[in-house]
Specification:
Elements (H helix, E strand, L loop, with lengths): L1 E5 L4 H10 L6 E5 L3 H9 L7 H4 L5 E4 L3 H11 L8 E4 L3 H5 L9 E7 L11 H4 L10 E9 L2 H14 L3 E6 L2 H32 L4 H19 L9 H14 L10 H12 L1
Parallel strand pairs: 1-2, 1-3, 3-4, 4-5, 6-7
Antiparallel strand pairs: 5-6
Helix pairs in contact: 8-11
Length: 275
């Protein structure tokens, strides 16, 4: 199977390239235009090719480029693809925003990693510290058929399994559901909340709490809080913790914040991402 990996020398592209190098069943062409990306691939012993030389013959074209340019890149390359081939994107933002070049004779699949869970058990320290996944820690992935046939979807799922391996579960969802997960859930909400927690951590260190004590205390409590809230342990918080949390919520969160999960707001979020 012929694959054209566009943006092969970027952060995600390099992770995918590392896995594709282990798979002789794929004939992968690595496309990269950035000087740093070319150097990243050269360090892996990978030769770079021009997109125009390989896209027309590819069975699968993977757009591993930043959200801000995936639209223009798709309009440059997708018209060159052979009929029946598959376009794969790695994020739902650009597809939901409608900036991906569309052809009725192609398939379109989105595949995004969940990354290894905080509750993954891994047999080695190296695997435990594979935080992004795709090296040695198991992770699940989410996949969606944006357009095309069931055969297109199954092909995309298999490629996703291989490029994100080792895999725990594959969750097939819709494009809209993927956008609810990212950006709305994990970026707009979770990352923002964690950035505020980190700001608080920095503040308590400024106030004189020893950094080593602060780090152990905060990270240890975060782990048990996540375990309780997500049902990983049969336990609850103390009465005092519930009382103080109830007091804090209106101080920290504006009423109606849940609107970030409405599709109208999500479309505004992805528009900010892609443009």
């Amino acid at each position: 199977m012929k694959i054209a990996l566009i943006g092969a020398g970027g952060k995600m592209g390099c992770r995918l390239a590392d896995n594709f190098l282990k798979m002789p069943d794929y004939e992968v062409s690595y496309v990269e235009t950035g000087l740093k990306g070319v150097e990243n691939l050269k360090a892996r012993g990978i030769s770079v090719v021009f997109a125009e030389a390989v896209v027309a013959g590819a069975d699968v074209v993977i757009l591993s480029v930043p959200d801000t340019v995936v639209g223009p890149v798709s309009h440059q390359l997708i018209p060159l693809m052979k009929s029946g081939a598959l376009v794969m994107t790695l994020d739902p933002a650009a597809p939901l925003d409608g900036v991906i070049c569309h052809r009725d004779d192609l398939g379109y699949v989105i595949a995004h990693p969940c990354h290894p869970s905080v509750f993954n058990w891994e047999p080695s320290e190296a695997a435990f510290r594979d935080f992004y996944g795709g090296i040695s820690a198991k992770q699940s992935i989410v996949t969606a058929l944006m357009y095309g046939t069931e055969e297109h979807y199954l092909l995309g799922e298999q490629v996703a399994r291989d490029m994100y391996q080792p895999i725990n579960q594959v969750h097939r969802i819709t494009l809209e559901q993927m956008a609810i997960l990212e950006p709305a859930m994990v970026e707009t909400l979770a990352q923002t909340c964690m950035e505020v927690v980190k700001d608080g951590y920095n503040e308590i260190i400024r106030l004189g709490v020893p950094e080593a004590a602060a780090r152990d205390f905060v990270l240890g409590h975060l782990r048990i809080q996540i375990a309780v809230l997500f049902g990983e342990v049969n336990g609850t918080f103390s009465d005092a913790a519930y009382k103080i949390s109830k007091r804090a919520r209106p101080l920290l969160f504006r009423e109606g914040w849940e609107k970030i999960f409405t599709m109208a707001d999500i479309k505004e979020q992805v528009r900010d991402i892609t443009r």
